[in-house]
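Risk register update: the risk of archive-format incompatibility is retired. Evidence:
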Amino acid sequence: MRLRECLLTALANQEPDSVPFVESVVEESVAVKLLGKKEAGPVVPPGHWLKSNTLRIGLRPPSGASYYAIELVNNLALDAVGIHLYLPNFSINREVGGRSMVVGGAIDSRADAEKIKFPDPDAPELYEPLRLLVETYASTGPACICRIPLGAGPAILGLGFERFALALYDDRTLLEKLFDLYAIWYARVMRHIDALEFDFIWRSDIDIG
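Archived output:
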């Protein structure tokens, strides 16, 4: 079976001729060594990569050695190539032992939440990198994955774990505001992603990038 056939056969609860191999995230230091890269820079999906203060589109991790997504897929013999679409989560991170760890959140009140503005989820330009990935690999290459959060993770990380736990008791309206902001945005985005004919959508929380 071809890569895509193998993976989709397994997802259909049938038996493929080999076990599909898919990775959601590859540790940056591991990927760099596997590919023999030394220079720091953005990871690049096919022909396009975008990073801004309001949106990230690309193959995780969003920073690291410069390489194309398909290079890592081929090196690891993966059956799928992925792209992600994430809003910022406003977490406060600190490097600990060479790894980025969440130590808090930048959102502390409903006033902070009211200031959050996301890009238009119906803007066609948001989906051009996703369309390009599907167009590049849809017929001959590995299966195509789009990875997006459910919305709960970014909201929790924006508060930080301690603030989130306290808000469960004393500020439920703040939680509802944040959950609505993310969940409604991603629900609208999902309609556009579904129309791009990815082989499957990888919904996940929590992301700390």
